[in-house]
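Good morning C.,

I know you're traveling, so I'll keep this short. The sequence:
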Amino acid sequence: MKRTKVALVYDFDETLSTTYMQDYVLIPKLGYKPDEFWKLANAWSAKNKVDMVTGSMYYFTKVAKEKGINLTREYLAECGRMIVFFKGVEDWFSRINKYGKFLDLDIEHYIISSGYEEIIEGCGIRKFFKDVFGCAFAFGDDGLPVWPARVVNYSAKVQYLSKINKGLGKYDDKAVNEYTPDDKRRIPYSRIIYFGDGMTDIPSMKMVKIRNGTAIAIYKPHSKQQKEKAIKMLRDDRVNFALAGDYREDKEIDCIIKTILNKIATERDLEVLKKKEDKKKKSA
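The tokens, ready to paste straight into the viewer:
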């Protein structure tokens, strides 16, 4: 019998990593402190009436060119190697996969992030993800960025979540809007667990929650401001849980996810038993 598929879907920045992925290496290499750089990038976007995610992609390429730094795929991947994760993240995936296997669940991990795919490609946990849906650059013949290949904002996150639900690939843009009966969808929302931290995650978290999946607001441990923001999402009925970013064994995230997986496995087993009883009724 095939294992029941479950999707664990994560934002990246401040959900798995302790801050924005660009803050560790890329921004300091450009000669700025993170707060200073983001303020300038956002001001440029506002002045030019550009979506802030798209604007920041341009601003990185603009400043890098001015500083004589080549933002090649290799350079960006190297920036990913220095990312710092919340406690327990680096062994989280193998631990939770093992627990899922014990329950006859096939757990798939995905990233949906406004961060950069090229940086994520270089980080130590990339190998655990079935797919990564993030902002990405198109590169010219000289190996430098020439245009945004993908921009992932709050609405695009919902689109990629739908692709996971339907079992579509990253580039299946037409099929994502076509009607698919619930029983034909590869991973129903009831078997999707979404981890996020910020405003761009709210539409996705709300959709997962409404459709009987689980949405979790992650906040930085010991940050009163972030904790209050996560609890507000809980109070506003946008998420099921508000949890500190600590993925170690026997901590809150670990215990709650295992309990949810137990529930999914139990509901599956009950459905199998129900079908057997239905067959008895028909043959009687």
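Safe travels,
E.
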